[in-house]
Fold this sequence. Notes:
Layout: E1 4-10, H1 14-25, E2 30-33, E3 45-49, E4 52-55, E5 60-62, H2 68-75, E6 94-97, E7 100-101, H3 104-126, H4 144-155, H5 164-169, E8 175-177, H6 182-189, E9 201-207, E10 210-215, E11 218-227, H7 231-236, E12 240-242, H8 247-255, E13 261-268, E14 279-283, E15 290-295, E16 302-308, H9 309-318, H10 320-335, E17 343-348, H11 372-376, E18 383-385, H12 398-417
Parallel strand pairs: 1-2, 1-11, 6-14, 9-12, 11-18
Antiparallel strand pairs: 3-4, 5-8, 6-7, 9-10, 10-11, 13-16, 13-17, 14-15, 15-16
Helix pairs in contact: 1-12, 9-10
Amino acid sequence: MVSETDVIIVGAGASGLSAARELANLGLSYTLVEGSHRIGGRAYSEEIAPGVWFDLGCSYLHQAENNPFVAIADQLDIKIGREFGDMFAREKICFYEKGQALNPAERDAYSSFYDQCYETILNAADKGEDVAVADLIDLENKYAMTFANVMAATYTRDLDQISSVEVASFEDGSDVPIQNGYGNLVATWGADIPVSLNTRVERVIYSSKGVSVETSKGTLHGRSVLLTVSTGILASGEIEFNPVLPDWKADAVLGLPTGTLNKVCIHFDEDVFGPDGRGFHVSCNDDAGAAGFEVSVMGQNTAIVFIGGRYAVWLEKQGQQASQDYALDEIANVFGNDLRKHAAGTIATAWTTDPWTRGSYSCALPGHGRQRSVLARPIEDRLFFAGEATTIGDHACCHGAFNSGIRAAREIRNSLDR
């Protein structure tokens, strides 16, 4: 690990890796350190059965029309499911109430409520109102809890904790699945980038003379530092800053906390869903809970249940078995109890307590919907920031983190040139 360098990059997720590549292209030296044992950050795949991969973090090529990882997948000859890019289109989703599919009138009622909610949110943001989504929708509507569960899994927080500006600023696009995992795609793409793993950053000291970064493996010195860790880590105090971060930066960190989206993947030893079962399924329940589940989109006999917000945090704290039981109940409610005997393996995520992220991804709190650009601003041209929390429109996305790393690398180059 080189102790003297132009840039010290903290975090080897998508943003840290893309920044490293861009800095090298710009002719700058860097040292990239990562606290965990692997690269990829919140892009992470695990094998749940031989040849069957589950993404614990990001799992779709969101906004695939403009997602750089689409071209990267093609270059690496990694199979992606372009034909399934519309799986989250409302007309493709299967909706249920008490295990029975909604009839056309019920589907229309849900769609009408959903559209009305979004229209109200967008109108509020257009008028400059940065308020809680919960303050803008009819919480007494029959489908309000279904909408709330979907929003919690999309934005990692509940309706009273989601900024209207946050929702309005996110850009639409197709959602393309990856045959063997987004995490594996990122790991393959970044495999040749030199990284010091198991290197936990403890303190960052910065001044007009440069920066020093104290790690579990020694102290690094550089001209600048690029922080790509999550806002959950920045807010935790696990990295000490000397001098402390200015109030405007601390406010941005606290206004963009990492929330929780957990997933439970269950692998079945045979196809218990049939060809008509593939796709995304949503149960319209009265209680907080799952936002829905994906079934075997890439033909791998898996079902993945999505749970966000406070309920996800609560369920995570009950332990792995509770999460597994809950997920299997959700799936069986739609496809019947006979599938239980074919459940062959389960993985449940636990992002709230993950020591390297302290959550899944960022969500702007009400009143803080414009903090992302503030979080991205450097401090004294010494401390620079990247990661999904610093992006607008593609926030909460792996490719947003990727793009932010390139942006930050160019900012650093311009700063050092000055």
